[in-house]
């Protein structure tokens, strides 16, 4: 698990939560291009760490952007 992709994913998540989709998308593109094979540690349902690929994380965040965009209309 590397720190830079984890921090980048966290910042992208924060941007999605704030509806700052342009910034989030820029970070997600960078993650895909530079860290596609990396794993990210994320908190699980009971506080245990789970490992998710960058690809899966990007898909989840992009799906949240689509949901937020639809909900805002």
Structure keywords:
73 residues, alpha+beta, 2 strands, 14% strand, globular
Overview of the molecule:
This protein is an alpha+beta fold and 73 residues long. It has one domain (3-72). Helices cover 67% and strands 14% of the residues. It is built from 3 helices and 2 strands. Strands 1-2 form a two-stranded antiparallel ribbon. A hairpin with a 5-residue loop joins strand 1 (39-43) and strand 2. Helix 1 runs antiparallel to helix 2 (21-35), helix 1 (3-17) runs parallel beside helix 3 and helix 2 runs antiparallel to helix 3 (54-72). It is globular, with a radius of gyration of 12 Å. The model has no long low-confidence stretch (mean pLDDT 89).
The helix tally amounts to: 3
Q: Which spans have pLDDT < 50 for at least 5 consecutive residues?
A: none
Overall shape: globular
- Biggest beta-sheet profile: 2 strands, antiparallel
Radius of gyration: 12 Å
């Amino acid at each position: 698990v590397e720190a830079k992709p984890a921090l980048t994913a966290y910042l992208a998540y924060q941007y999605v939560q704030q509806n700052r989709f342009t910034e989030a998308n820029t970070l997600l593109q960078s993650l895909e291009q530079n860290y596609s094979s990396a794993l990210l540690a994320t908190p699980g349902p009971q506080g245990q760490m789970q490992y998710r690929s960058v690809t899966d994380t990007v898909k989840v965040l992009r799906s949240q952007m689509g949901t937020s965009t639809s909900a805002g209309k």
